[in-house]
């Protein structure tokens, strides 16, 4: 499977497992899972066929590990805009986490902090390099350091997804520092 096809399948999966499952006629269970056979059939019925082997390849090589397969089911690891409960337990975060963004968002972030927007949680990276890659998707990256330890001590909940992305409901501005 070439890189272009891998990216195309990955984007298609992200769209339908995180945001628009009903568009192709699949129903996620309350925890975001859908049977693999049902997903493959729905994708084919909507003009985008791929094999189980291609699906397994996309899941295995995705650099962000966006998807999880358990037995005969698949789900997105995080980033949903549709209602799901990933069942992730609360976890104590590292002292610092990072968030990649772009300069045009800084005014709002400084005033309001980091908000989940259409998603369920704010996504935070465990290291600066990952945050740079995330921010670079939308332009020249700006990295914010999050004082996750202080947030946790103040009572904010954190969860960590299967692919190592840290999730929290909101990061108030007082817990953010600009990193160059």
Task: Please tag this protein with its features.
9 strands, ADP-ribosylation fold, 180 residues, alpha+beta, Arc Repressor Mutant, subunit A, three-stranded antiparallel beta sheet, 2 domains
Return the string of H and E elements: HEHHEEEHEHEHEEE
- Distance between the terminal alpha carbons, to the nearest Å? 38 Å
Beta fraction of the residues?
A: 15-25%
CATH topology of the largest domain: ADP-ribosylation fold
* Helicity level: 25-40%
Low-confidence stretches: none
Read across the widest sheet, the strand sequence of neighbours is 1-3-2
Query: Radius of gyration, Cα only, in angstroms?
Result: 17 Å
Q: What form results from the Cα inertia axes?
A: globular
Largest sheet: 3 strands, antiparallel
Question: Architecture of the largest domain, according to CATH?
Answer: Alpha-Beta Barrel
Q: Can you tell me about this structure?
A:
By secondary structure, the protein is an alpha+beta fold. It folds into 2 domains: 3-76, RNA 2'-phosphotransferase, Tpt1/KptA family, N-terminal domain (Arc Repressor Mutant, subunit A); 97-179, ADP-ribosylation fold, CATH 3.20.170. 33% of the residues lie in helices and 19% in strands. It contains 6 helices and 9 strands. It has helices at residues 3-19, 36-45, 52-61, 106-112, 128-136, 148-153, and strands at 34-35, 67-70, 73-76, 97-102, 122-124, 141-146, 159-160, 166-168, 176-179. The strands form 3 sheets. The protein has a 3-stranded antiparallel sheet. A 3-stranded antiparallel sheet has the order 4-6-9. A 3-stranded antiparallel sheet has the order 5-8-7, with no helix packed on it. Helix 1 crosses helix 3. The longest helix is centred in the first third of the chain and has 17 residues, at 3-19. The radius of gyration is 17 Å and the shape is globular. The termini are far apart.
